[in-house]
Amino acid sequence: MKKAVYWIMGERAGRTIVGTWNWLWGMPVESGGKVAVAVAEESLQSMQEAVQKLAVAVAAQEGAYKTAKNKYETKVKEFKTLEQQAMIAQNGGNEEAARMAMSKAIQTEQILPKLEEMVKQAEMAVKASKDKLNRERMKLESYKADMQNMKDMSEVNEALAMIAKVNNEFDIGSAKSDFEKAKDAVERRNLKTEALAELSENPAEKLQAEIENMTLDDEVARRLQRLQDSQPKQLPE
């Protein structure tokens, strides 16, 4: 499915569409979770495929360059051979053959500078392509290392998230806080009740009650003493 989207929409647009689908499913790349790692893996795979295609193209360029270079070197040898043939024919007194060989040598010589320039251009193009391929390969290796680090970091993040979840689920700090609040409220209510009770008492009535209690105690003591005094005393035998 992903390759079909890339083929229809292009690589960059395809990655954008795939990322959008992930977001629509409630899994945005920006969350930095497993989906982000998956999208990064898809991008890395696309980069690997692009580098492989570039390597194939560079190999084809190098093949074409070698063909052009061989053709140029063949023409150079052909030119030198024609010159030798012309010289041999001239020395042998065969003027017609000498002129024919020299004519072909001149025609070949005229095309050599153009062929040489084309070969140099092909060599420069191949060199530039090889340099680009090397740079892209180095970038790819760097991205591979980043990918591994990203996976490791994602796993650590998942572990930390689970730890935080456990801590939140079993956090009794809020319960302690509620208990302390309830305790304080009860104590404040008790103090308030005691204060209201003290304020509700009549000082005069309280004093009168204390006097009455003292009087009653005195009366009880007096009567007990009277009973004791009224008992007959036993005479010693």
TrEMBL record:
Residues 112-153 form a coiled coil. Keywords: Coiled coil. It holds the Pfam family PspA_IM30. It comes from the Bacteria. Belongs to the PspA/Vipp/IM30 family. PANTHER family: MEMBRANE-ASSOCIATED PROTEIN VIPP1, CHLOROPLASTIC, PHAGE SHOCK PROTEIN A. This is PspA/IM30 family protein. It comes from Anabaena catenula FACHB-362.
